[in-house]
Write a structure and sequence with these properties.
The chain is mainly β. 11% of the residues lie in helices and 29% in strands. The protein starts with a strand and ends with a strand.
Length: 211
């Protein structure tokens, strides 16, 4: 039996929970882990402050973090690891992960997302609906690809990068750590670390990001 603890109580957390249930084996279970302010009920919604009380030593237990805020994500990961949980990846049954690709632990691949041949995705990433990681691309940890975001082949994506919805990063380009690509933006040049790039700016130049 496998138990999955999803940190978060709504939005992506619900998507992850339903994706896990769609391919779960009999006896597997999933629970949302939420703070006291989000109305835990002790069954499907567990209080993060009492998480250890719900663990069953007989289960193969893992966790995944759904929230976008990095500070919150790191706190949740620390809480999970403190009680002995291991990061567990969830791949929706309608997603495609190439047999030659590598998917980091604690990552989520949503419906109709694709991780292509020889691509490598880091730990604790979220690849949302219809996202694409092209062949031979390398994606760092805590990266988020919003719905429809596309990375061309052999892209190099640093840690904690956000690629907005329906954006496209041209093949072979590099995006430095802690950068943001705005929604519907075409990236045809390398983007240094800690920058924001948006096609909606008139001059098309990246802005510095305060991290």
């Amino acid at each position: 039996m496998t138990a999955l603890y999803v940190f978060g109580g709504s939005s992506t957390a619900l998507e992850i929970a339903e994706s896990f249930q769609a391919s779960a084996s009999p006896g597997d279970r999933v629970s949302l882990v939420v703070p006291p302010s989000e109305q835990p009920n002790g069954t499907t919604r567990l209080c993060i402050d009492a998480l250890e009380d719900y663990l069953d030593a007989a289960e193969d237990a893992g966790f995944i973090v759904s929230m976008a805020n990095l500070e919150v994500r790191l706190k949740c990961i620390a809480t999970a690891e403190k009680v002995g949980l291991q990061p567990l990846s969830v791949v929706h049954p309608l997603a495609v992960v190439s047999p030659s690709a590598k998917l980091g632990k604690g990552s989520y691949v949503a419906a109709h997302a694709v991780v292509s041949a020889r691509a490598a995705v880091g730990r604790h990433c979220i690849l949302n609906f219809h996202a694409l990681v092209g062949h031979d691309a390398n994606v760092g940890a805590h990266v988020r690809l919003h719905p429809g975001a596309k990375l061309g082949g052999a892209c190099q994506i640093g840690d904690r990068v956000l690629v907005g919805a329906n954006s496209f990063v041209l093949q072979g380009r590099t995006i430095g750590s802690d950068s943001i690509v705005d929604a519907m933006t075409y990236v045809n040049a390398d983007l240094p670390a800690k920058k924001i790039l948006s096609s909606h700016r008139n001059d098309g130049r990246p802005l510095g990001r305060v991290v």
